[in-house]
């Protein structure tokens, strides 16, 4: 029996890890589809967090050996700052987040968090430091309370409510007949994209990670909801090192640095204003998105940042 206990125990651990991974990262990382390629070094120490700076040094990566996805990607996010990655579909933006979370190891270069190569620390400690608001939040078939509390299961009710308030979803929850006990997910109340994203934000706030990854939804939210969520992200990004994978440029006008990726290479970098002034890819992308945005409200918004 004792001989059996160890493998069963490690199976249990694996199961919990998979569960945890799924809950935290949802579809973006669909863990079960991903090969397990990454292992802890024997007795790998925990990541020692000191502010949460992130450095990609000449990172090269491909999912398959014969097809490179990222080439010589080099950037630094100082502790507490926000970096945004933009670019065409398939440019490799989400791959940056997957590498930071260490679902895969880089083929070239290295990734450092607070000066430590992420391959040398335990995955559990690395992942505990990172909160992800995924593109499309998949909710558990359980109560709203459970879905938020998952960010930190030992949190008190007061903390769960405070996180919901910060994510501007508390009033909505209270307006439901069953409040926090309302069932959601496939078999429960259907929530809008914006409401689901706020639950994901509340969950992440409760986790209180030092590093935040926000993978913006590709599917458009209505302009008003989008604007509100942008404000919320800006608020929670303020004290954290943040990587935003952006599809709409309006989300990232205030980022400390913006990288423009094309076919796995950084082709431009700078602030919103410097990139607009540069008249390159970013400026062209911005002009294109402005044309497709509708409504006076948006033109005002564009004028403020032009
Ligand atoms: P989008 O804006 O459409 O979300 P992206 O810039 O985030 O795109 P990535 O998701 O990083 O792009 O994908 C970069 C490239 O890697 C794409 O060509 C994609 O097909 C490929 N890719 C992504 N995940 C895998 C995987 N698990 N196995 C093999 N190739 C993959």
From TrEMBL:
It is a multi-pass membrane protein. Keywords: ATP-binding, Membrane, Nucleotide-binding, Transmembrane, Transmembrane helix, Transport. One of its GO terms (cellular component) is plasma membrane. The chain holds residues 296 to 601 of 608 of the full protein. Residues 54-288 form the ABC transporter domain. It comes from the Bacteria. One of its GO terms (molecular function) is ATP hydrolysis activity. This is Metal ABC transporter permease. It is found in: Cell membrane. GO terms for biological process: intracellular iron ion homeostasis.
């Amino acid at each position: 029996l004792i001989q059996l206990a160890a493998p069963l125990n490690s199976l249990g651990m694996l199961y919990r890890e998979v569960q945890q991974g799924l809950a935290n990262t949802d579809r973006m990382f669909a863990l079960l589809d991903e090969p397990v390629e990454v292992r802890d070094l024997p007795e790998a120490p925990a990541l020692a967090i000191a502010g949460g700076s992130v450095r990609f040094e000449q990172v090269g990566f491909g999912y398959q050996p014969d097809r490179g996805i990222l080439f010589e990607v080099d950037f630094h996010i100082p502790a507490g700052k926000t970096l945004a990655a933009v670019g065409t579909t398939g440019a490799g933006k989400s791959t940056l987040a997957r590498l930071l979370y260490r679902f895969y190891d880089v083929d070239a270069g290295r990734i450092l968090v607070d000066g430590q190569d992420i391959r040398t620390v335990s995955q559990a400690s690395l992942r505990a430091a990172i909160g992800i608001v995924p593109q499309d939040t998949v909710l558990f078939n359980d109560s709203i309370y459970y879905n938020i509390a998952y960010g930190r299961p030992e949190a008190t009710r007061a903390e769960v409510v405070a996180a919901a308030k910060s994510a501007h979803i508390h009033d909505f929850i209270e307006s439901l007949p069953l409040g926090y006990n309302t069932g959601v997910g496939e078999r429960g109340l259907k929530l809008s994209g914006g409401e689901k994203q706020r639950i994901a934000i509340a969950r992440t706030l409760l986790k209180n990670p030092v590093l935040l990854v926000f993978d913006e939804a590709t599917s458009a939210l209505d302009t008003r909801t989008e604007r509100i969520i942008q404000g919320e992200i800006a608020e929670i990004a303020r004290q954290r090192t943040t990587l935003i994978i952006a599809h709409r440029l309006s989300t990232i006008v205030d980022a400390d640095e913006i990288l423009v990726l094309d076919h796995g290479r950084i082709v431009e970098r700078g602030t919103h204003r410097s990139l607009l002034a540069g008249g390159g890819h970013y400026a062209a992308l911005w002009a294109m998105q402005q044309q497709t945005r509708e409504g006076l409200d948006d033109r005002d918004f564009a004028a403020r940042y032009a």
